[in-house]
Amino acid sequence: MNLIVTTAQQTLPSIIQQAKDIADKLAVPFVPRNHYSLAALKEKYELNELIVVTTTGPIVHTPAGEYFFHLSMAELRIKNLLNGNHDHMVTAMGLMPDMSVLDCTLGLATDAIVASFVIGEKGMIIGLESSPVITLITSYGLQNFTLDSEPYITKALRRVKVENADYSDQLAALPDNSFDVVYFDPMFRDPILKSSNVNPIRTLANMQPVTPEAISQACRVAKQKVVVKEAAGSSEFARLGMNTTVGGKYSSINYGIIECKPKMAGGGQP
């Protein structure tokens, strides 16, 4: 991994230790800041990306901008749900309290946070993320970000469990009927470049398309639905065998759906 970890110019000893711990976890060098600018560090170490650990959390600096944990649209979407408004992802998944969700492509965790809010305290949501750097940033935010004015959102953050893992490996290892819903939000084949929240992580994220084999495994693992998020009109839905889609009339996003049936022992249908 061509990456280093450093800190802000003037910081606390605890932050320096945190940066060292992060560097050890990622198996990359920790470099003291020593009054270097970030541009100078990138030039010295021939880097495109580096992580700066600050008092508010780690920040990844990439050529496309900074990547750090933030709620993105999750806060607004949850407030819309509280006001009785519609959320296309919630509809596509058929989310209800107490359900279990496997988010195979956690990324920024925006969708996982919304799902966590809907399924509630007795629900279960696990997010898989194959990028160690994205896993680091998202895990830190989910466990440390606090919204004092909306404690129900903070609780939704804490309930999302994160695993640094490739979904293909994890799905193959899971038993039948492990989750009510299995969800994929891959990097779009035709990216929506105006999506500034995602642009900084394009060089860090897994860019591989979802395979039909992964969908087949997901259908085995899911009791109710497999859902894939993609750009509206994408050919990916047809390629993955998804004939049903949900999305707003003017939305740039659609959700492809495969309805699943619970599997009996031995792989048969009830």
TrEMBL record:
Entry keyword Transferase: yes
One Pfam family, short name: SAM_MT
GO BP, sorted A to Z: methylation
Record keywords: Methyltransferase, Transferase
GO MF annotation list: methyltransferase activity
EC number(s) stated in the UniProt entry for this protein: 2.1.1.242
Protein's UniProt name: Ribosomal RNA small subunit methyltransferase J
Source species of the chain: Sporomusa silvacetica DSM 10669
